[in-house]
C-alpha cells in the first residue's frame, strides 16, 4: 500500500478559500429566462405591439384583435422550447458520485465539488475521473477517453501520465495528484467556447425579417402620410381634432400598416415548427430551438461520429478461429471455447472479456458446459476445475487461467494453462515461429476487427497434485505455449445504421464519418454499414488535412471517412463544408464534439452525450438511436416545403397593403377597409387554410431562396388585388352616383372587402392545386364559411360585415369578376417574362 499521505485538513481549507475546489457550471440547455426573452423581444412583436397600442389608445378595441397574434406566437415558442428544456434537464440529472481521496494519511469519501487542487485521488474501475491529475501510482489502470478525444480504444496510464476529467476508468485503479480543477480542467476549457449560445440560422425567418426591416423603413412615414390624408378628408387637422375624427383617422392608418406585416406567416411558422417538434418528441427526439426544424429540411451534408452513431459503443465477438493441428471442429472447438469462457470469466471483466462472454453465451455456452447448439456432449469434457488465475492487466495485456479437466471418454485428467491477450505480446514470448499467426491477425485487423489470441500449454502436474498448482510471484508466459485460436472482436454496429444511411443516400444527403479512431478501422466499419453503398469508403488520416477551410473543402470532395480527428479539426471540417455552400448537420456525444456541433448548421446530440454537448445541440436524440434521423429530416422537409407553398398567401396581403396605402395617400382616398376586416378575411383565405395545407405530406429537400420564390408568386397577385381595390374605390362612387362618398363609406367598404375575399379565395385555389383531392374540398369549405359568417348577426356586427343588396349587389359581382380577370392577366404576363425558379 502506498505511503503517500495526501493533503492535510488545513491545506484543504486553504485551497477551498482560494477557490481551488472542483466546482464547474455545466448547464445542459438555455435557461427559461433566456428562452422567454428570445421569443418576446423580436422585431415582429415590436412592430405589432406598437400598432396594437396605437389602436387601443385611439380607437375601438375590436380593431386591435390582430395583436392577439403576439401572445399566441410568443406562447407557442416559449412553451415548446421550455418543454424541450425541462425534458433535457431531466435527462441530465445524475446522482452525484462520491470519490475517494487520501487526506492526513487516510482514505476518505468526498463529493465531486469537494475535491481540491493537489488532492491525492483514487480513480477506480467503473468511475468517471472527476478532475485532471497526474498518475502517482498505477495498478493496471485503463481509461476510456472517447468522450474527450473520440478515440474508442482504451488507454493505459503509467506514473507521470496525465488523466483528464470526463474519462472513464475501464479497469484497474490508480492514485493521482489533482493538477487542475473546475473551470481549469481540460474538459471545461474544451467546452468553454461551446457554451456561448448562438441562434440557429433560419432562411424563412431571415426572409420575414428582411420584409419587416423594409417595412420599418416605410411604416413610420407611411403611417404619418395615412393619418394626414385621412384627417384631410375629415376637414383638416383642426376640424378632425375638434370633432374626434382624428381617432378614426389613426385607426384607418393602422389598418394600412397592419396589412403590411405578415403576422399570419410568423404565427404559422411558429405553429408548424411547434407541431413538428411535438411529433418528433413522441419519437424521443427533442428540438431545443424551433428554427432547427427548418434547418432539418435544408441539410445536404451529414457528418457522423462513429461511436454512438454507427456503433453503439460496445464490443461484439465476431469469430473464434481455431488454429493448429487440423483438429478444428469437434473436440478442439469445444476445448477452445470452454477455455475461452473460463479465461474471460473474471470477477470484474473488461469490455473485451464481457463481449467474449456474451458472444459465447449466444452460441449456447454457459458455465455448466458446451452441450449446446450442435456441440455434442461426446466432444465436451465432463467437468472443469479452475486451479489458478492471473487477471487481465493493461500493463501485461494478457490474462491466464489453469484448468483441470476430466475427459469423459478416457476418464483421465488434464491440466492446461491458457493465455488470452494481445497477439504481439503473447507471440513475442513464445518459442514457436508466430509469423503466420501475426499475418492472420493483420489480415483481420485491416477489416477493422480487434484480434486477440488464445494460447495453451499442457502442464506436467500429477492429477492428484493439481489442486496445489500456484501462481508465480511474477506472472509470465510459458514459452512452450502454442497459439490455439484467434479471437476476433469488433465494435458492435447498430442494426439500423445500414438502413438509415441508405435513406440519406436516396435523399441526396452526403454522409461522412468523422472520428478520432484509426481511419482504416473506421473505414472498415463504414464499409460494413455501406456508407457509400457497395463501393469501399475512401478514408484519410486527419493529420494530413490542410489548415485552411478552403483547402480542406477540396480534400473532402474525395473523402468519405476522416480518422484521427482532433476537436478543432472537426470544427474545421464543418467550416470547410460551409465554404462550398453546404448545409451541415453534425452528430456527436462527447465533449470533443461540442465545438463542431456548435459550428454546424444543425447540431444533433445523443441522449447519453456530455452535458456541454447537449447544451449546444439544436436536436437531442434522447434514446441515442441513429435511426430517428430520417424521421427528423423528413419532418423538417414536410414543414418547410409546405411553408413555401403557403407563404405566398401571406405576402399577397403585404403586397396589396403597400399598393393600397400608397394609392390612398397619393389619390386622397378614404381607406377602403378596417383592421377588423383584414382579420376576418385572413382567417378564411390565408391563416387557417394555410395551416392545414402545411400539414400535407412532402419530402422534397428545401433549397435556400425561399423569399425569392415566394415573391415571384405573391407580388403579381398582390399587385392585381391592390389595383383592383383602388380602381373600385375610385370607380364605384362615380358609377353609383354618390356625390358624398363619406355618406356611402360602409357600402364602398363592403364592395372592397368582397373583392379582397374573392381574390383571396382565387389565390388559395391556385396555391392548393391540384384541386381534384381533399385540397379542392378545403378551398370550397372556406369559401362557403367566409360567406356564411356575414349572415351570422354576432359575427357580422363584430366585424362590420354587410350583405350587398339591390344595385350594390350587381356592382359587387361585376367588380369581383373584373378583378379576377385582372389577376389572371397579370399572372400570365409574369409567367411569360419572369419564369418561376423551381425549388429543386
Automatic annotation (TrEMBL):
Record's GO cellular component terms: plasma membrane
Keyword Membrane part of the UniProt annotation:
yes
Grouped into one coarse class, the protein's main location is: membrane
Keywords tagged on the record: Membrane, Translocase, Transmembrane, Transmembrane helix
Task: List residues traversing the bilayer.
Answer: 35-58, 64-82, 211-229, 249-275, 650-674, 680-698, 710-736, 748-765, 777-796, 808-830
UniProt keyword Cell cycle, yes or no: no
Entries under Gene3D superfamilies matching the protein: Calcium-transporting ATPase, cytoplasmic domain N (3.40.1110.10), Calcium-transporting ATPase, cytoplasmic transduction domain A (2.70.150.10), Calcium-transporting ATPase, transmembrane domain (1.20.1110.10), HAD superfamily/HAD-like (3.40.50.1000)
Membrane topology category:
Multi-pass membrane protein
SUPFAM superfamilies named among the record's database cross-references: Calcium ATPase, transduction domain A, Calcium ATPase, transmembrane domain M, HAD-like, Metal cation-transporting ATPase, ATP-binding domain N
Q: What Pfam families does its record include?
A: E1-E2_ATPase (PF00122), Hydrolase (PF00702)
**Domain P-type ATPase A, first and last residues per copy:** 96-193
One molecular function GO term is: ATP binding
Cellular localisation: Cell membrane
PANTHER family in alphabetical order: CALCIUM-TRANSPORTING ATPASE (PTHR42861)
Question: How is this protein named in the record?
Answer: Haloacid dehalogenase
Q: Which organism is it from?
A: Alloscardovia macacae
Amino acid at each position: 500500500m502506498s505511503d503517500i499521505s495526501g493533503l492535510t485538513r488545513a491545506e484543504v481549507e486553504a485551497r477551498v478559500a482560494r477557490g481551488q475546489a472542483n466546482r464547474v457550471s455545466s448547464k445542459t440547455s438555455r435557461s427559461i429566462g433566456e428562452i422567454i426573452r428570445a421569443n418576446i423581444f423580436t422585431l415582429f412583436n415590436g412592430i405589432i405591439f406598437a400598432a396594437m397600442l396605437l389602436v387601443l389608445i385611439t380607437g375601438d378595441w375590436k380593431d386591435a384583435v390582430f395583436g392577439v397574434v403576439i401572445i399566441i406566437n410568443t406562447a407557442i415558442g416559449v412553451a415548446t422550447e421550455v418543454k424541450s428544456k425541462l425534458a433535457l434537464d431531466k435527462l441530465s440529472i445524475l446522482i452525484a458520485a462520491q470519490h475517494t481521496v487520501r487526506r492526513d494519511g487516510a482514505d476518505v469519501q468526498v463529493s465531486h465539488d469537494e475535491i481540491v487542487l493537489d488532492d491525492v485521488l483514487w480513480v477506480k474501475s467503473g468511475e468517471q475521473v472527476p478532475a485532471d491529475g497526474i498518475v502517482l501510482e498505477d495498478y493496471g489502470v485503463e481509461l476510456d477517453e472517447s468522450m474527450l478525444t473520440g478515440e474508442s480504444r482504451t488507454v493505459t496510464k503509467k506514473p507521470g501520465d496525465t488523466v483528464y476529467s470526463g474519462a472513464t476508468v475501464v479497469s484497474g485503479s490508480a492514485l493521482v495528484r489533482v493538477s487542475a480543477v473546475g473551470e481549469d480542467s481540460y474538459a471545461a476549457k474544451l467546452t468553454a467556447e461551446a457554451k456561448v449560445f448562438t441562434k440557429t440560422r433560419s432562411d424563412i425567418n431571415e426572409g420575414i425579417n428582411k420584409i419587416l426591416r423594409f417595412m420599418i423603413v416605410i411604416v413610420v412615414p407611411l403611417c404619418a402620410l395615412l393619418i394626414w390624408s385621412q384627417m384631410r378628408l375629415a376637414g383638416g387637422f383642426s376640424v378632425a381634432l375638434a370633432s374626434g375624427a382624428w381617432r378614426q383617422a389613426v385607426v384607418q392608418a393602422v389598418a394600412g400598416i397592419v396589412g403590411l406585416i405578415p403576422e399570419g406567416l410568423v404565427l404559422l411558422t411558429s405553429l408548424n415548427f411547434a407541431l413538428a417538434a411535438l411529433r418528433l418528441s413522441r419519437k424521443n427526439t427533442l428540438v431545443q430551438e424551433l428554427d432547427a426544424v427548418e434547418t432539418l429540411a435544408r441539410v445536404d451534408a451529414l457528418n457522423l461520429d462513429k461511436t454512438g452513431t454507427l456503433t453503439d459503443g460496445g464490443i461484439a465477438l465476431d469469430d473464434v478461429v481455431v488454429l493448429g493441428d487440423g483438429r478444428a471442429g469437434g473436440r478442439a472447438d469445444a476445448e477452445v471455447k470452454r477455455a475461452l469462457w473460463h479465461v474471460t470469466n473474471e470477477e470484474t471483466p473488461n469490455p473485451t472479456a464481457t463481449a467474449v462472454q456474451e458472444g459465447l453465451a449466444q452460441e449456447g455456452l454457459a458455465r455448466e458446459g458446451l452441450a449446446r447448439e450442435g456441440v455434442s456432449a461426446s466432444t465436451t469434457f465432463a467437468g472443469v476445475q479452475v486451479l489458478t488465475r492471473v487477471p487481465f492487466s493493461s500493463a501485461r495485456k494478457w490474462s491466464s487461467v489453469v484448468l483441470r479437466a476430466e475427459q469423459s471418454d478416457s476418464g483421465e485428467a488434464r491440466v492446461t494453462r491458457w493465455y488470452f491477450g494481445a497477439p504481439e505480446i503473447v507471440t513475442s514470448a513464445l518459442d514457436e515461429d508466430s509469423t503466420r499467426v501475426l499475418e492472420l491477425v493483420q489480415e483481420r485487423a485491416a477489416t477493422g476487427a480487434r484480434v486477440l489470441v488464445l494460447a495453451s500449454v499442457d502442464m506436467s502436474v500429477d492429477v492428484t497434485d493439481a489442486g496445489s498448482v500456484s501462481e508465480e510471484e511474477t506472472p509470465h508466459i510459458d514459452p512452450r505455449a502454442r497459439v490455439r485460436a484467434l479471437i476476433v472482436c469488433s465494435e458492435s454496429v447498430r442494426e439500423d445504421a445500414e438502413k438509415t444511411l441508405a435513406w440519406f443516400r436516396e435523399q441526396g444527403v452526403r454522409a461522412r464519418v468523422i472520428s478520432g479512431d484509426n481511419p482504416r478501422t473506421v473505414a472498415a466499419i463504414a464499409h460494413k454499414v455501406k456508407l457509400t453503398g457497395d463501393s469501399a469508403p475512401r478514408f484519410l488520416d486527419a493529420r494530413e488535412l490542410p489548415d485552411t477551410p478552403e483547402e480542406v473543402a477540396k480534400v473532402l470532395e474525395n473523402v468519405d471517412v476522416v480518422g484521427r480527428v482532433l476537436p478543432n479539426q472537426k470544427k474545421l471540417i464543418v467550416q470547410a463544408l460551409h465554404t462550398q455552400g453546404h448545409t451541415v448537420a453534425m452528430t456527436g456525444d462527447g465533449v470533443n464534439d461540442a465545438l463542431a456541433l456548435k459550428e454546424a448548421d444543425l447540431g444533433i446530440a445523443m441522449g447519453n452525450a456530455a452535458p456541454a454537448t447537449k447544451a449546444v445541440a439544436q436536436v437531442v436524440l434522447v434514446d441515442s438511436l441513429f435511426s430517428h434521423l430520417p424521421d427528423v429530416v423528413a419532418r423538417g422537409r414536410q414543414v418547410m416545403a409546405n411553408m413555401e407553398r403557403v407563404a405566398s398567401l401571406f405576402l399577397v396581403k403585404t403586397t396589396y397593403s403597400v399598393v393600397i396605402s400608397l394609392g390612398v395617400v397619393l389619390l386622397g382616398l378614404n381607406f377602403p377597409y378596417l383592421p377588423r376586416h383584414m382579420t376576418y378575411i385572413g382567417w378564411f383565405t390565408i391563416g387557417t387554410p394555410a395551416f392545414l395545407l402545411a400539414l400535407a405530406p412532402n419530402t422534397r429537400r428545401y433549397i435556400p431562396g425561399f423569399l425569392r420564390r415566394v415573391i415571384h408568386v405573391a407580388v403579381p397577385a398582390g399587385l392585381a388585388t391592390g389595383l383592383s381595390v383602388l380602381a373600385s374605390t375610385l370607380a364605384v362612387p362615380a358609377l353609383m352616383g354618390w356625390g358624398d362618398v363619406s355618406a356611402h363609406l360602409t357600402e364602398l367598404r363592403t364592395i372592397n372587402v368582397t373583392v379582397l375575399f374573392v381574390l383571396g379565395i382565387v389565390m388559395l385555389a391556385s396555391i392548393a392545386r391540384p384541386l381534384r383531392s381533399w385540397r379542392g374540398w378545403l378551398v370550397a369549405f372556406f369559401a362557403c364559411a367566409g360567406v356564411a359568417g356575414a349572415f351570422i348577426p354576432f359575427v357580422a356586427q363584430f366585424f362590420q360585415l354587410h350583405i350587398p343588396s339591390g344595385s350594390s349587389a350587381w356592382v359587387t359581382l361585376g367588380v369581383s369578376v373584373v378583378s379576377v380577370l385582372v389577376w389572371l392577366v397579370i399572372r400570365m404576363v409574369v409567367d411569360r417574362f419572369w419564369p418561376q425558379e423551381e425549388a429543386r
